[in-house]
Every structure is written in C-alpha cells, then in structure tokens.
UniProtKB/TrEMBL annotation:
Keywords for this protein: Signal
PANTHER family given in the database record: ALIPHATIC SULFONATES-BINDING PROTEIN-RELATED (PTHR30024), TAURINE-BINDING PERIPLASMIC PROTEIN (PTHR30024:SF47)
Organism expressing this protein natively: Oceanobacillus halophilus
Regions annotated as coiled coil: none
SUPFAM superfamilies: Periplasmic binding protein-like II
Name of this protein: ABC transporter substrate-binding protein
Pfam families assigned to the protein according to its UniProt record, in alphabetical order: NMT1_2
C-alpha cells in the first residue's frame, strides 16, 4: 500500500512539475500604450501575427491615455514597458528619479498628427492659421511641441498669432473639436480620416512631413526592469523588429486586415488609407534603433517649445544594445 501511495504521489508531483514548466515557458509582459492609434500599427501587428508568442512572451496591453498617465503607470509598477513619447523620459530624468525610464526600442520616427480644418481648405496655406481658433494638445507633449515647431517654421507664433486653447484633455480633443467653435486641430489617424469621411473636418497638412525625423514614440522600461529581465527585453525587441519588417514588406490593405481587431469601430478600407498615409511619409520606423541625430532633433524641438528641462546626453537615456543585438543576429 505504501508503495502504491508513493507511486501516486510521484505521478502527481511529475504532473505539477510539467505544469510549472509550461507556465514558466512564457513570460508575461504588461505593456501600456499612450493611446490607441493606427500610428502604432507595427506593435499591433506583432501581437496579431504572433511575433511576441514566437519569442515566448505573453502581452497584456492596456491603453493609459496620455503621456503623464502612461509614465506614472510605468514608474509605479503598473506596467513593465510603456509605449510613449521619448520626451517623457527626459522629464522623469530631470526630476532626479533614481530608477528612471530608458528608451530601448523605437516604433515611430515622425510626428503622427495631421492638421485638420473644420471647413474645406483646398488651397490651404499655413498663413491661414493666423487669427484662427486652434485646439491645441497637452503642454509639453510631443504633438504640441512638434505643432509649435512647425508653426514657427512657417513664421507663425503659436502663442500670439493663433487663439490657442490647451484646456482639453487628450482623450477628449476629437469630441471638443467636433462640437466646439474651433477652426483647426491636430489629430492622429484614424480619427483624422473618420472626421474627413463624416465631413466633420478636412485634412489640410501633415505635421510628420513638415517636422522631419524625430523619435516620436518608442518603448521605455525602468532601468531596474531592464537589468533584471534582459532576455525578456531582447525578445520583446525581436518581436517588434519582426513586425517592423513585416509592415515594410506588406501593403496597406493586408496590414489593415491584421490590425482591424484593435479598431472595431473603423472599417478596414478607412484603416488601410490611414496606414498608407503613415507608410507614404515613413512614419513607421524600419528598425528599433533610436539614433543620436534623432535624439538631437527631439531636444531641438523641446528647446524651441521652451520645454527642455536640461540637456540630457543621448547615452544617458537611450540603450541601443538590445536593438543592435537583434538586428545583427
């Protein structure tokens, strides 16, 4: 009897052991995205095409709506990795944070907003903005800073030449523009195209084309997480790089079909046109490396907006080790 009981216990122990091995074969990553946008198409492709799974990762994606909220979520341990603007890492560093956020993989390399007018402007000129009611973005956020950079490039002072309203929360900007007396706004896709289809607004210019390359959105993690989870960060970067190559190799129609589950209220045809807009202006980064020239452009834009708290060296907040390893291997 004792022998039979021993064999039974051994079998149960073996089952538990095998079950544990199966559960530890996948690493769970909590990922916070700053907003839901077609602008982040390669990330959604990595999820839907199973690239994260191929690298042994299970992604728990949450949308945290806004740079401040996303960075707070990351720093408080509510997320392992954040998809957010690189400027947030500079703000955190300037606050003398002990465990600050590091940029380790880039996703987008241009601004992702479009200038949308309430009325049709077939012959739009930037000088048309002078004296207009302009619904702006969050102070210190990349959309607003790039917007100001572009306006100044066209000799328009955003603080004095337009009636700038920055009182609306990021998530409520589309609704406020549609219902308010604003004449212009910056919008991401697919919202810009949805507004155009509905006649609520009309795309008249691209801030991405006007501002050039900049590390607009990327993946950040706390230094402590990266130190303790090097393999997971490497595998995460691998999955993103696979997706970046996949997006480059496939047309907008096919990409739209893949990412459609993330945009249930938007039809696939409109998604495809939004994706094509971003592809045509090279908004999607072709690899995860954030290079030093892009970092300098980021600081120049922040400086122009008066939002650069200090001149943080590239090597301090950018870690390309994982991206370089993934690309080389």
């Amino acid at each position: 009897m004792r022998k039979i009981r021993y064999l039974a216990l051994t079998s149960i122990g073996l089952l538990i052991f095998l079950s544990a091995c199966g559960s530890t074969g996948t690493t769970k990553i909590s990922l916070a995205e700053v907003t839901r946008s077609v602008f982040y198409t390669p990330m959604y492709v990595a999820i839907e095409e199973g690239f994260f799974e191929e690298e042994g990762l299970e992604i728990d994606l949450q949308t945290t709506w806004g740079g401040d909220t996303t960075m707070t979520t990351l720093l408080s341990g509510g997320a392992d990795i954040a998809l957010v603007g690189a400027e947030t890492s500079i703000y955190v560093y300037a606050q003398d944070s002990r465990d600050y956020a590091i940029n380790f993989a880039q996703l987008t390399q241009t601004d992702g907003t479009f200038l949308v007018a309430k009325e049709p402007k077939p012959d739009f000129e930037w000088e048309d903005l002078e004296g207009s009611n302009f619904l702006g973005q969050r102070v210190g956020g990349m959309p607003q800073m790039v917007g100001e950079y572009v306006l100044k490039k066209h000799d328009i002072d955003p603080q004095s030449d337009v009636n700038l309203d920055q009182s609306v929360d990021f998530a409520n900007i589309p609704g406020a523009f549609a219902s308010g007396d604003y004449e212009y706004v910056q919008l991401f896709e697919p919202t810009a195209s949805v507004f155009e289809r509905e006649g609520t607004g009309h795309i008249v210019a691209s801030f991405g084309e006007e501002s050039g390359k900049v590390p607009y959105t990327g993946f950040l993690a706390k230094q402590s997480f990266m130190d303790e989870n090097e393999e997971a960060v490497t595998n995460f970067t691998k999955a993103i790089y696979k997706a970046q190559k996949w997006v480059q190799e496939n047309d907008a129609d096919k990409i739209a079909e893949v990412v459609a589950p993330f945009f249930e209220d938007t039809d696939v045809e409109l998604l495809a046109s939004s994706i094509e807009r971003y592809k045509s202006q090279d908004s999607f980064a072709t690899d995860p490396i954030l290079d030093e020239e892009e970092w300098k452009q980021l600081k120049a834009i922040m400086g122009e907006a008066g939002e650069l708290p200090e001149d943080v060296p590239y090597e301090e907040l950018v870690n390309t080790k994982f991206a370089e390893e993934v690309i080389n291997n």
